[in-house]
Every structure is written in C-alpha cells, then in structure tokens.
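Check my protein:
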Amino acid sequence: MGFVAVFLAAAGSFAQTTQTISFKVGGTARSGVVHVPAGVNKPPVVFFVHGYGGNGAGFANDTKADKVADREKFIAVYPSANGGAWSMYDTSEYPFLRMLLDTVDARYKIDRNRVYCAGFSQGGFISFGLGYKHPEIFAAVAPVSGHIPSFSTAAALPRPVPMFLTFGTNDISNVASFMADVSTWLKLGGCDISSRRIQHPYPATNRNSTVARITYSCAQGSEVVIDSVVGGGHEWAMDTVKKVNTTEEVWAFFKRFTRSGTTSVGVEAQADVPALLHASYRAGRVRLHGAGEENGRVIVTDLEGRTVRTLAVSGASFVFDGMPTGVYLVRVDARNGSRASRFTIP
C-alpha cells in the first residue's frame, strides 16, 4: 500500500502556504488541499471532509477554516473524493486519508496527539467512521449531517473518542436517526446518560439562536455534544444571527481534547490516563512500547476491523508471524486501561 509519487504543488518555506498534495493509492491518483499557517511548531491537524459533489478546495471556501487555522495555528487539510463522492459505508477511503496525514506529518512534524476530523454529509460518515476505526489516530471527531457507517460497531472502542454532532431538525435524515447514532456513541464511550445537560438557546448570549445543545460526560474526560438547529436543513451552518459558525464551534470542541484525554490549553494528559502505546513489527514479532510489563489481553485487527488474533501477553512483545503484509491495529487491555496503536508488516 505504498504511494508511487508525491507532488507538492507549492513547495518552500514554513511561511503561510496553501498547497495541493497529490499521490497515488493503489494506482489511483488522489489529492488534498493543505493550508499551513505561518510560524507553526508541532501543530495540530484538522481534516475537513466535504460532502457529495464537492472537493477539497470548495469545502475550504465553504467552511472558511483557513481563517480559524491561521488564528489558532493548526494545519487545515481538505481531502478530495474521486468524482466528488466518498465510499462512506466502508473503510476503502481510509488508507488515502492516513497517507495524506503521514505526508503532512513528514513535511511539517505535526502533533500526532492532536489530529481531528470534521466532515459534512458524506464527509460526516467519514468522520464517524474514522473515529471508530482509528481511535489511535484521531483525538476527536465532528460529523455534521452525517451518520455512523453501516459496518458493525459491536466492538468496544479502545478509548472513548469525543464526538460533536451537528444536524438540522429539517435535515435530510430525521432527528430520530441522528439520535440513534448518538445512543450508539454514548455506549461506545462509556458515557453517563444522567449527565445530560441542555442549553437552549445556544449560545446563551444570543436570544435569537435556534440552536439547542446537549452535552454528555463520558469516560476518561471524554464528551459527546449534539447541536440541533431547530428548523435547520442539510448544511454546514455559518449564520451567527440565528445559528452558529460551525467551523468555530468545531474547533472550540476539538482543542479541548487530545488522544490522551482532555486539555484546557496545551497537550497535558490527565493523570489517570494510561501512557500512549506504540507498536512496531520486526521479524515476526510485535514489540509494544509503553505497555509496561503487566499481564494483559492483546487483540489485533486488520484495517477492515476483522479480528485476526487474540492472545494473552506478559511483557512487552508477542509473536505475530505468518501474516500478510499490511497495516494492523493492536489493542492492549490491561489493569490500567486499554491502549491502541498500529503497526505495519512490510
């Protein structure tokens, strides 16, 4: 699953720049627009995934996220679907998105603890799916007018992924279908249903707002937040007279979370959150850096979410031979919590 070539449309310095990154995935040309603010140093990254019929450049214009990125010093990434349509019900788009992230990281040395994904409509499906399938990469997700893809969500998340869902009460899908997704995510995140808080209107400073916000507290400091726009349609709202600036609300949510937990300013993790896990493969053996020496259960899945091996381990490595090349997700369940990472068999 390597790429054939990487073409950076606008090379150069670490001054503010907007460029198109192009490469091939499985022989197919793919691209994304990347906006880098001036003076970034180990910046966060936010994916903004367009809806049906769109592209990265168009969604950058719709969301006006470059302005927020310049102020808050994060890299904004706008991937483009082939032909304007995402494969939103499966994981076939995920290798492209991971490769795009890795390419940005190689160039700008990003903060891998603060990678986020927001998306609209079909892009909302992508955001939900990435949060579920790749919690080891994405610290939080924010689907707008999108649903959880149809693949199974029976397996528990290795860590609770903060989720911020926005939809209109007159959206293409009905309110009940969105709230069904919320119920699923509440279970996945070990959320306290009794913690439900309602703000209406939101924000309280705007009496004309038609937005109602519901917030749930979840395990390890995570949260699930829902903004329902009363009378709103299928849109990425940017009207602050009666609604909200969705881009600003998404970033305000994202910046409170890292892969390690919550943060009010920087990237400090909560004291009770276990250390991050890093896995590496060599000569038929996987080494687990950060797993400690405790006994635990290891579950290895492929990129389609299929479990390929489950075993008990004591120590920081295990045998993993006879498997095909590719990328795998490993989760360690131990006394001090669950952690996940990915490794590649070359």
The helical segments are 56-63, 65-72, 94-108, 122-133, 175-188, 246-254. The chain has two domains: 6-262, 278-345.
